[in-house]
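Support reply, case 0932

Customer input (verbatim):
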Amino acid sequence: MRIMALDIGDVRTGIAVSDPSEMLASPICVLPSAEVVSGAKSFARVLDDWEPELLLCGLPLTLSGEYGPQADHIREIAAVISKNADLPVEFVDERMSSTDAKRKLREMGYDEKTMRGKVDMIAASIFLQSWLDRRSTQDER
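Our regenerated output:
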């Protein structure tokens, strides 16, 4: 099954997908959040191209792991996206994924300006890969 991860922000949404065997997460693109929420042609094309069976949305929990206003907001937005895309949605803790994405991009030689459009899709691939790894470990038990 192919899973599509969404790192939903106020302005941009980073998108990553898994391979069909659910082993590897890959960053795909970044789209304006308004286009993702409204189901615009740009997002519909991504859905058509990758044919996911599940949306995995990152939840910005507090550092103590609690749900806050931002997490509630993301859950509401994800419900709209899920309904428009006619796909089930699950959530995963995305704490520190953007920080990890920026670190990885810096290691690759990107500066703040050039990494700006890439951070969100890298962050989505990071929390998707963690989610896939946890599921794989649980399946081995």
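We compared this against your earlier run and they match. Two observations from our side: The mean pLDDT is 89. The radius of gyration is 14 Å. Please reopen the case if you see a mismatch on your end.
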